[in-house]
Here is the input.
Amino acid sequence: MSTPLIAVYGAYGHTGRLVAAELHSRNQNVLLAGRDAAALEAMGAELGYPVHPAALDDPEALRGLARQADVLIHCAGPFKVTGEPVASACVETECHYVDHAVESHHVRHLFEDFQSRAQSAGIAMVPGMSFYGGIGDLLADAVADGLHDIDRVTTAYAVSGWRMTTGAKETAAQLFAETERITYTGGEFHIGYVEPRNVVFPFPPPIGPRTMIAPFPSCEIVMIPRHVPARTVEALLTAETFTEEQVFVSEHVAMAERAQSEFTVAAQVIAAHGSRAGRVTGTDLWRAGALASVEAALRLMEVPNKTGVLSPAEAFPSDVLLRTLERLGAFRVIIEE
Here is the structure.
């Protein structure tokens, strides 16, 4: 039996490097991939891993990559550009797929257009398995467990010291320029212009109430309604996150400096006969996302009990995965009883 192999696409970017380093520390069999052959060769020499250059406009090279792997972790955004070709290569070659997308339109596209293809191929595709999106999806599911007649689910991100990469800046510019946003109200999805507004979210101490950007166009808006029967789902982000000087001028900072972010992700579930809240708190949101995707990939290399396109909370038991990430040092988990 051959040793299972995990391909990392966009391996030389910040997130890709964190993913590859974590897999290396666990002695996993890894194939480094991406568009820049020189960057891949240098990284391959550093870690002792083979490399596979593959451009986004080269379907055969992408299929050749996915054909070698049991699961592929896609780390190279913006996924509006990179998601379709890499996901297509995986479904065509029966390779499990995990990505770091935050973009709700990309995730919705996979759910709507790749579902039957992934099921026919016998693979699982788990988009949004990252800090923004995936952690909120898992946390909302864990907090909502056991509640009925749910009116509203809110995920709220308090982030400071965020140092964006070039890809993150491009994604943020795309998201905040969108006029066709996906929202979920009245038990239905809506697509259209949404007037941005500020709201106050009551984070518990020591953060306290904070002014938030609403809605924050993160992909859990698409994912949470698949497994939590709520009438409204909304994501929020602290307004002060984007007023910090370093956030937009940090493409070339060292990895150690980029690791200095601090975060709390809160989930509030309001139901007819009670409510509940939970949160995760930690430092270095990039590492938290990398650990989440690595854990997802390792679980998919085992015999999966589900196929198709799945949100993180559909693919994995949310409380179990959150507690695993807590043990790995990604964050601290607090869920009200």
Observations:
- The first strand starts at residue 5 and ends at 9.
- Residues 132 and 269 are 18 Å apart (CA to CA).
